[in-house]
Design goal:
Elements: E1 5-8, H1 15-20, H2 28-36, E2 40-45, E3 53-57, E4 63-68, H3 73-93, H4 102-112, H5 123-132, H6 144-151, E5 160-161, E6 170-172, E7 178-185, E8 188-193, E9 199-202, E10 207-210
Helix pairs in contact: 3-4, 5-6
Length: 212
Amino acid sequence: MAKLYLYLQQHHKSLMENFLKLIPEKSKKKVVSLLHLEPVIVRVTKKRISKHGDFRKKANGDFFITINESTNPYRFLITLLHEIAHYIVYKKYSNISKPHGPEWKLAYRKILLPFLNDQVFPDQICRCLAQYIRNPKASTDRDLNLFMALRKYDKKENYSLILEIEKGQSFRIKSGRKFIKLNKRRKLYECREVSSNRIYLFSPQIEVIPSL
């Protein structure tokens, strides 16, 4: 049995216990069994805006997964399984397959299906996952129904989504730049930057700070 390495940036006591606190209760036995079979290093990091997790092979040959620390156990578990699927595909195909190609989709489907029940996930997330897993995208954020179902279990912050902002309302992005929401173009929203009058396109899931 391969040794399971867990490096948590912010926790140094009882590493396994702290790791297991980040996933749903009913998934813990399956996750421990799964990870103990594979010599992969799993590291929990601070939240990154650009991604929920990633997988890579280091120069020394170690397989390395990082997952954003999250108060949402369902998002954390889905991301962990997503990255383990990358590891499984890399072991079998090395760099031959595309990052989110057919091989990864099949591996992710197989690894996620044993967890796909209402003992692990709330009913709404479970139903959205069942639809999503038919043809999984590179990120769960790109599936609006699943994104909204998961968001209900995120820690509440003073942010709104672009799709929740009224047309003509102003808002700021996290860098401080101010915009006004305009029209919808199929899946994206036109927004005008106040300082430059330039038009930018925003995904409906982008978190922004509404102006009062």
